[in-house]
Amino acid sequence: MKKLFLMLAFAGAATLTNAHKVVIRINKVDNERGQIGVVVFGKDNYMKTDHPTWATLTDPIKGTTTVTADLPDGQYAILVMHDENKNHRPDMDGNGIPTEPTGMSNNPELHAFPTFDQLAVNIQGNTTIDIDMVRYK
């Protein structure tokens, strides 16, 4: 998870052929501190933090923060982290539970780190995806 957030600090969006506009609406953002990181993975590169399909950092907007990615048709997993204190790492408690808000595609209720299939969303043309932020602590 730490590598994931560090990668965000240096990530650039790659230009993809046959890409479609994917609007990612990040809902339930409860403050405007720090930055929000968004990472998109395909099945073949899921959690290979040095090779995401697409990634960005953005300033949070309380309520809903929106980012737009260019992605070709396919299945993707999307992870969102709100780095409220801008320390460029996910803060966790002693049990590994995030102390800053996180969100994932499909908004799953989880008790362990998700598999790709739990998060997979289908992109077919221009698409809008809603992700709700969750604060565990």
Describe the secondary structure blueprint for this structure.
Layout (H helix, E strand, L loop, with lengths): L1 H9 L9 E10 L5 E8 L11 E5 L4 E9 L2 E10 L18 E3 L11 H4 L1 E3 L3 E6 L5
Parallel strand pairs: 1-8
Antiparallel strand pairs: 1-4, 2-3, 2-5, 5-6, 5-7
According to CATH, the fold-level topology is Immunoglobulin-like
Our count of helices gives: 2
Q: Please, what is the average pLDDT?
A: 89
Note the run of SSEs as H and E: HEEEEEEHEE
Count of individual domains: 1
Q: What global shape is seen?
A: globular
Instruction: Give the C-level CATH assignment.
Output: Mainly Beta
Describe, in plain words, how this protein is organized in 3D:
With 137 residues, the protein is mainly β. It has a single domain (2-132), classed as Sandwich (Immunoglobulin-like), CATH 2.60.40. The protein has helices at 2-10, 116-119, and strands at 20-29, 35-42, 54-58, 63-71, 74-83, 102-104, 121-123, 127-132. Strands 2, 3, 5, 6 and 7 form a 5-stranded antiparallel beta sheet that branches. It has a 3-stranded mixed beta sheet with strand order 4-1-8, with no helix packed on it. The longest helix has 9 residues, at 2-10. The model is unreliable at 6-15 (pLDDT under 50).
